[in-house]
């Protein structure tokens, strides 16, 4: 009898505690909505508002015309998982610990942007188009709804569908918005678009024959078309003027430049320079319509910028490495500053035992640290064809010092963990995306090879796998034999 009374009072006490906690939970019922759109594998120079004359991107162009476009935004790493980890944590890869895809999960002790919004009363959701961002890799923390089932993806190769198209992702997003987005509480919604990732499709049904010779731009046009449906929903429900829209690329695509067909190994502009557009409601930021900023910025700056714009200041305990892109007083940060941004690719080391790369971009100079250092003047040589390292050793030395300063401040925030053990089905999913041979421990080597000398080998390996899948074993064997002979 006494036990029954005790439990009755315990239940009452817990209920009261729950009411009290709910009453004092921080809320932002009057705060703006936030729509974060990440464009996977999307080069800035293939979008209309960035100067691409053959692009068909009216929605992205409109967002830029009504918002703020950053002309020189950079990813810190040309791979999907570590790049998105930087966006959602405000930390650089050496700090959050994710250096390549599908090897580790984000440390549970590292706060995320979604958790920050959730703690302040926002309804949070994410719509993921690729298995590379599956919840097991840790970016789902803080999202009340994390839609990451890609098994029925429309986009894939070799009969394995591990990518969801922009049509599917926007459909899922609109389903959630129609059921949840009309609430009085604001939302933080992340929409991941992966269409410009290999394999490219031309979408003749939707786009006609305009892109018959350029399937990569067709994918961007297709994505833009479906993003228009999201913007239309915001307008139809009178929410666009109370929604911060952030559109950003996670990394670009090589498209054959410097010998790199896709991305992940090199740190040239083709894979590091990404689009970044803010459409900000009302007068949150002065002079925010059609503004173009030429300042060098990094994706690490998105966490503090988005949080501050939404009225959720970053507390000192979070210790993010990024900075608010908009200065105190609601004015755009001075373009006369001389910022310096960090970039890296550990994939050559971790996946093949080759030399890793780091890069520093400052003003119009870019320094690539590798076996044979590279220095470029991006103003006169945007395609990075003329290496100035030998001609200007003094500039190389200055940028090496800048890199050392950056590197000295990058303290790991993650606990050392073992690599994830992936099931056969998960490995197959990653192989279908071209992510093969991923590892987390560098191979032993006395002298690491410069990626410039071996960049063709990943393409050769992927080509051989395609031939094997198609039953062309002799042709595949010949390619693999060549690769082994050259690498020995």
Describe the structure.
The chain has 488 residues and is an alpha/beta fold. The chain has a domain at 33-340: Alkaline Phosphatase, subunit A, CATH 3.40.720.10. It is built from 16 helices and 17 strands. The chain has helices at residues 2-24, 58-65, 80-89, 93-96, 113-118, 166-180, 204-207, 215-236, 269-272, 302-309, 347-352, 393-408, 424-432, 451-454, 456-469, 473-487; strands spanning 33-39, 68-74, 123-127, 145-147, 155-157, 160-163, 187-193, 243-249, 273-274, 276-279, 291-298, 326-327, 331-332, 340-345, 357-362, 365-369, 374-377. Strands 1, 2, 3, 4, 7, 8, 9, 10 and 11 form a nine-stranded mixed beta sheet that branches. Strands 14-15-16-17 form a four-stranded antiparallel beta sheet. It has a two-stranded antiparallel sheet with strand order 5-6. A hairpin with a 4-residue loop joins strand 16 (365-369) and strand 17 (374-377). Helix 6 packs parallel to helix 8 (215-236) and helix 15 (456-469) runs antiparallel to helix 16. It is globular, with a radius of gyration of 23 Å. Residues 1-28 and 333-337 have low confidence and may be disordered.
DSSP helix fraction: 25-40%
Q: Could you report the average pLDDT, rounded to the nearest whole number?
A: 83
If helices are DSSP runs of H or I spanning 4 or more residues, what is the number of helices? 16
Main structural class: alpha/beta
Instruction: Return the CATH class of the domain at 33-340.
Output: Alpha Beta
Assess the beta-strand content as a share of residues: 15-25%
Instruction: Using the 3D structure, state the CATH architecture of the domain at 33-340.
Output: 3-Layer(aba) Sandwich
Unreliable stretches, pLDDT < 50, 5 or more residues? 1-28, 333-337
Per CATH, the superfamily of the domain at 33-340 is: Alkaline Phosphatase, subunit A
Straight-line N-to-C gap:
80 Å
Rg (C-alpha, Å): 23 Å
Please tell me what the overall shape is.
globular
Strand tally, please? 17
Task: Could you tell me the CATH topology label of the domain at 33-340.
Answer: Alkaline Phosphatase, subunit A
Please summarize the sheet with the most strands: 9 strands, mixed
